[in-house]
């Protein structure tokens, strides 16, 4: 008899458990409208940014893809030509020269992250006058591309440039089809290296010093400490510097426009300048849009590859 009453009391629950169940059910009923309000507020906050992104990013991309199937000079009616612009592009010698130069830009431009890391490790010290040295290292990044192009054009000048003082005789770097691209890339690396340095410096200040000390206690020194302890903590900075360097290499335009104009004989042109040349000089907007689509697809491949690597590394 007592056992049955005990089972009945257990099945019904103690009097103190019933208010708890009632309070939990009431909290769940109250939390559901609150969660909906929070989601609605989050969507409202995201709406302006998403609208701007669609207007200034998504819409131009779609418009460029659509325009690449037309022949249009900007004034007359558009004429649908299908894949004719892409076919002409694949049979153009200038396109392959520009593509080769873009690959060269990409390979040499990827020197900026490791050099920037070396400078960041050197500047990440607490010594007298380090702030002044940091500002001197970072100063090239604040200069505009036009100023950098003019400075290096004077530097390469075979008559009175500083390069003549180092070599002993004038070298027409920007006038030689074999050297022009390398000269422009060297000028572009001057501000790109401080940019990567700044990314690494910012990340170095956020590293927990206890992790470094733990690595030293485990016997890690020198390169082993850098490779196994420091670099894993700098993964976000490495991702940003590599991705932004790749984008900067593929969309290189301003220095080429200032220093060589794509010459001599289109030897230093890249896809971005080739696109500008066809649109502004020859009013071939459909053909220029086809070049832009190819450049966008190349950028997309590199960015997706880097994102996948970052996601796999975080798992």
From TrEMBL:
Q: Where is the ABC transmembrane type-1 domain?
A: 98-306
Biological process GO terms, please? Answer: transmembrane transport
Give the matching InterPro entries.
MetI-like, MetI-like_sf, UgpAE/MalFG_permease
- Residues of the region (Disordered) are 1-29
Q: Name one GO cellular component term.
A: plasma membrane
Q: Which Pfam families match?
A: BPD_transp_1 (PF00528)
* Family annotation (SUPFAM superfamilies): MalF N-terminal region-like, MetI-like
Per the record, the domain of life is Bacteria
- How is it placed in the membrane, per its record? Multi-pass membrane protein
Compositionally biased residues, Basic and acidic residues: 18-27
The record's keywords, sorted A to Z, are:
Cell membrane, Membrane, Transmembrane, Transmembrane helix, Transport
Q: Which residues cross the membrane?
A: 43-70, 103-123, 135-156, 179-201, 239-265, 285-305
Q: What does the UniProt entry say about where the protein is found?
A: Cell membrane
Main location group: membrane
Provide the family line: Belongs to the binding-protein-dependent transport system permease family.
Which PANTHER family does the protein's record reference? BLL4140 PROTEIN
What name does UniProt use for this protein?
A: Sugar ABC transporter permease
Phylogenetic classification of the source organism: Bacteria, Pseudomonadati, Pseudomonadota, Betaproteobacteria, Burkholderiales
